[in-house]
Design brief:
6 strands; 106 residues; 5% helix; mainly beta; 1 helix; disordered C terminus; globular; six-stranded antiparallel beta barrel
């Protein structure tokens, strides 16, 4: 964990659908990693900062990630993927209601 991060990232590669609030548009993507406060997605097109998103895992799950994704998120950053393969952009989502006074591992 880097000094500026409050929460440890958990790597994963889960296929999912990102549903954009307002338009209802659905984008196929992957969760690349997650922490208590957010997720990093691999997507095929850029998403503007501030876009509100709901992420749905394609495989039904009951673990920490599935539980976290019950909360909507908002795009905080979007950048070209460092190693474009299955996606061209990486997007950071901050999950809503993720403020908490102490650190904890997911």
């Amino acid at each position: 964990m880097t000094p500026e991060r409050n929460w440890e990232r958990q790597p994963c590669f889960e296929p999912c659908i990102a549903e954009l609030d307002g338009t209802g548009e659905r984008i196929t993507c992957h969760v690349l990693d997650y922490s208590f406060t957010g997720v990093r997605l691999g997507v095929d097109r850029p998403l503007p900062a501030g876009t509100r998103v709901r992420v749905h895992l394609l495989a039904s799950g009951t673990g920490a990630l599935a539980s976290m994704l019950q909360r909507p998120g908002a795009v905080t950053w979007c950048q070209t993927a460092k190693d474009p393969g299955q996606w061209f952009f990486e997007v950071g989502l901050q999950l809503m209601d993720s403020a908490t006074p102490s650190k904890r591992k997911v």
